[in-house]
Amino acid sequence: MSAFKAMVIDKTDAGQNVGIREFNEADLMDGDVTVRVSHSTLNYKDGLALTGKAPVVRRFPMIPGVDLAGTVEASSNPDFKPGDAVVLNGWGLGETHLGAYAEKVRVKGDWLIPLPEGLSPQQAMAVGTAGYTAMLCLMALERHGLRPERGPAVVTGAVGGVGSVAVALLAKAGWHVIASTGRPEEADYLKSLGASEIIERSELTGPAKPLAKERWAAGVDTVGSTTLANVLAMTRYGGAVAACGLAGGMDLPGTVAPFILRNVSLLGVDSVMAPKALRIEAWSRIARELDHEKLAAMTSTIPLDGVMEAGQEIVAGRIRGRVVVEIG
Ligand code: NDP
Known about the structure:
The chain is α/β, with parallel strands linked by helices and 328 residues long. The protein contains ten helices and 15 strands.
């Protein structure tokens, strides 16, 4: 059995220990497809796993990394054959199943989708779970019947990964995008992605009133806590907010007033267990609708040995846009 290079998190009495080492193919977990990984990416959840700041990792040793793009090396799954280019987002990779910061993974073929036409493996990882979640949020708002004619859309945590892609996708779909950020110095960046207005994060982080002045018809919230409560309280009659994140906290200190007095809806968005048909639809829309130049402008690239430092940065809210991790 061959060995390959992987980043491994071990649990020690002192906490957790993270390093790059040789990993034996025989120690990979069950699955019917082996993939040679070319690229992965860094998401907020990867930062939590690497730093141990939240109990994301459920078994040790763990190879972190929730996203991958690569090429099938061996398969007993009828849907995939050696040489196929594939993408995987979520399904417990880097949490319960050995993940993507490695030259090889063994996974269930059901978790894989073909690399979307029109995207390179590098671009697919520039999108990653963060960008695919942004598309799931847009699709949830549209399923609710919301269109740009109804009014502006707010995006919170706008300079982050989900936020940056959400700004670009909503603007491309014709929305007047209000980007909320704690980094006003990134206003030009957000405008270059398509934001029409920039607001200070602090406008949304204080205690929320049950109802406040109606400011937007739709929202994509990556922050949670008082930010989400304020976003809901400021949503127009009949509007909706797609909630996908907790960068500011997991609580939701608000009231039911927006729901029962303004007919506002809160739409939950999970990317990890999203069914395959929804994933394929989201990815094919990303391939068609996300401007490649904007994607490149929001993306930086790091080697595998830069992941630990970048993980600390993302948890501290200091990463702009998306980070691709070059593996093989
Ligand atoms: P990033 O760290 O790239 O972005 C998060 C952004 O939130 C930051 O850039 C910052 O934006 C803002 N922020 C950070 N800390 C705070 C704070 N204390 N108060 C208010 N705003 C804050 O992470 P991602 O974009 O990768 O992920 C965003 C969130 O979405 C995370 O919570 C992540 O777990 C979640 N997520 C959920 C998924 C799902 O399936 N539901 C999938 C992917 C992500 P700014 O500087 O502009 O204010």
